[in-house]
């Protein structure tokens, strides 16, 4: 039995029990000291810390006092997930492909209302059913894209990229088994494979590209590691903020970063010691960046809240040439069941201004080696509810920002919002086709390897990248 990628003490006081049934919920650990069944990573971490504290003979040696900042510590890093079971691995060719382009995946979590970002302003069904959230071309700042769609006024930060031909937009994007559940849809998006596969699609992507050994090769700029990275061969960092990604300790001996890592390595076996050292080294590198002071270029001004600081951090680390290949970024709070108008307007402005600032900051030359792709678990209903919001829907919009973009509205003929699903924007493009084209034309991944990243799926041309 292959061991779970989880924590364990050197005296084996946590014993793993693994099932091959395909039901991840049946995987668990057993505390051999007490007989307790441990069914969550949180509890496993707690037990490991309690035993480590007992061995150290030091009060207050906890995860919170050891490492804080960015919502990530050594004990919760990356692929340390209790539910991971033995998963299919692949026999790739000797020389992995990839042209050095960086992929930035932005998750609009909560189900973004794409109709309030890219509005089908001539659709009569949209006009009739959006009483409080309707967008029109007459609004100040609106950008008409063609005779069907417009960029909402709040998205004007992306106007420069659109005019330059560096922004493609795909309409009616979704997953083939839309459940309208946040958790289930994201699980499917992250896996992008039949249920027997336990790795995420970005983990499989990393398998196809040359490992440059950088500790920043792949990371999530978020409070947690994106599920699409699960099953990666190496630990993936979660960094919520460069400024806050640092060790914080109340220990009297003022341990250095390396001394703290060595202490963990001596106290705990398995992956934890190595993970601790890697994490703390990464914190040291990030703090060097944070303290260096970063000045955006080309007159770029990032929003000071939400997505803005995250995209500023990403721009800084890309320019520092730290070996980044894939990074994910989160923008949350898109679940607008009530009082949608004001909330979505704020989020849309933050999204447009943040992406627009990143585009301007990176400059036209660097953007030739960057592809930004947005993903949301589903769109929202065309019809507003009684709380002046919208509910979980189907098709959404995906933005592709890159110097390689076609600068077009992609996804085929617009079917309109009056359809067999009635209240929804029907899904006409599987998001895997968008991601496959991003990998092929953006990153230089060949069809054979894309078939291994997206098994049992045949991508269709979309037209987002040249």
Describe what you observe in this structure:
The chain has 466 residues and is α/β, with parallel strands linked by helices. The protein folds into two domains: 7-69, no CATH class; 102-212 and 294-453, Alkaline Phosphatase, subunit A (3-Layer(aba) Sandwich). The protein is 31% helix and 15% strand. Strands 6, 10, 11, 12, 15, 16, 17, 18 and 19 form a nine-stranded mixed β-sheet that branches. A three-stranded antiparallel β-sheet has the order 2-3-4. A three-stranded antiparallel β-sheet has the order 7-9-8, with no helix packed on it. α6 (201-208) runs antiparallel to α12 (447-453) and α7 runs antiparallel to α8. 49% of the residues are buried. This is DUF1501 domain-containing protein.
